[in-house]
Amino acid sequence: MKFSFNNMIKQVSFTLLCMSQMSYSQVILDANGPGNTTNEINAVLAPGYDAVEEVCNHSAFGDHIDEIWDPALNDYVFRFSMHVSPDNNKCVTLDRQRNEIKTYDQSPANLKGVIGETVQYKWKFKLDAGFLSSPDFTHIHQLKSVGADTNEEKQPLITLTTRYKESWGDPGSPNRHRIQLRLAEYTSAITIDEVVITPFLGEWVEVIENVTYGEIGTANYSIHIRRVSDGLVLMNYESNAIRMWKTDADFMRPKWGVYRKNNHDPQIYLRDEEVLFADFSIAESTCIDTTTYNGGWDNGTPTATKKAVFNSSVTLANDINACDCEIKSDATVIVPAGKYMKIDGDISVGTEASLLIEHTGSVVQVNDVAVTINNGTINVSTETLELKPRDFVAFGSPMSGATREGDLAPVHRVFEHIT
């Protein structure tokens, strides 16, 4: 008995093969159980200093950032609490409330984004099913400058915020409540992407944000948000035609938490909230150059510090080693038998693009925090040896396209083990 089948993989994010070697400078902040939360956050984001901007005027409640067990993730997570009253902003500003963590000037250098550097920010968050938003802003993530022009620095470079506006729809319409991606290249901000908030509520979502800091022409920004429970993509934005820097900035840094305007009727707009966060990661990429394939490489062959971008279709004649790989829309890259692609970092397959891996061909993705974003098709072809009754064969991941009722129907038994 012999089987030959193709596994059509359409999920949003998966890892073809992970090894322990790291090609990113990576820092991870994970919850590990109740107690000592503030000190543990500081030890990662700003050792010896204070990276927590917690509510300071509500000591009777206790810590506004703590750690709890979450059954959906089967792990400990961070809980950020906010109260309509009396919480405020640093005991100074009374028309807004802040409960955030951050990196800043006292943080290690590998947590600061500098011009020309590529950084990946990754985390999970969960908004409660009854979550409410201010009409002005309820920020849950920001990328902010330090040392920039005073007027430019007032506005975060990037903001992921939630808002509720009656003018956005009829009463009861989900369009009234949105999550927005905001960009302030200079002194004013614009919305560059927005979606209704309904699919986020009551669900864990994973965010992958990639930034190459720089001026227009050298900068790149992307954010990919998917729902953890079913992989549904909730937001997917990318642009290399925006400014990702601030004039005279020393560096850029991330913030996470809850920062909201509260000078509205709380009976209409706001309530006490608990926003959950988990699995923070900041990783600096080793990619310092790019080469693009258009029938040939325009900047030499890819290397461990050079990203491979495929603008046209190709069947690989030689093995590929690259720090990242991007297959542009409509291009097809075939990894034939006996050849491999070793990608230290991320793999991105664009709309209508394809990555086809033939039997005994392979794609190896090295970095533990790297992701594969598949907006096209990834097809892994597998062919077994001749099997006799009661013989067995083991297939490695990914095998999401093979089912007992489909490709494997003639076999005696099928077992699945997820590691």
Would you give an account of this structure?
It contains two helices and 28 strands. It is mainly beta and about 425 residues long. Mean pLDDT is about 85; it is low at about 1-25.
If helices are DSSP runs of H or I spanning 4 or more residues, what is the number of helices? Answer: 2
- The strand count comes to 28
Order of helices and strands, N to C?
A: EEHEEEEEEHEEEEEEEEEEEEEEEEEEEE
Helical fraction: under 10%
**What is the rounded distance between the termini?**
28 Å
What is the alpha-carbon Rg in Å? Answer: 23 Å
**Class derived from helix and strand content:** mainly beta
Shape: globular
Mean pLDDT: 87
Largest sheet: 8 strands, antiparallel
Low-confidence stretches: 1-23
Strand content: 35-45%
Topology at a glance:
Layout: E1 4-9, E2 25-29, H1 37-45, E3 52-53, E4 65-70, E5 75-82, E6 96-102, E7 118-126, E8 138-146, H2 150-153, E9 158-164, E10 177-183, E11 190-196, E12 204-212, E13 220-227, E14 233-239, E15 251-261, E16 273-284, E17 289-293, E18 306-310, E19 314-315, E20 320-322, E21 325-327, E22 332-335, E23 340-343, E24 347-349, E25 354-357, E26 362-365, E27 372-374, E28 377-383
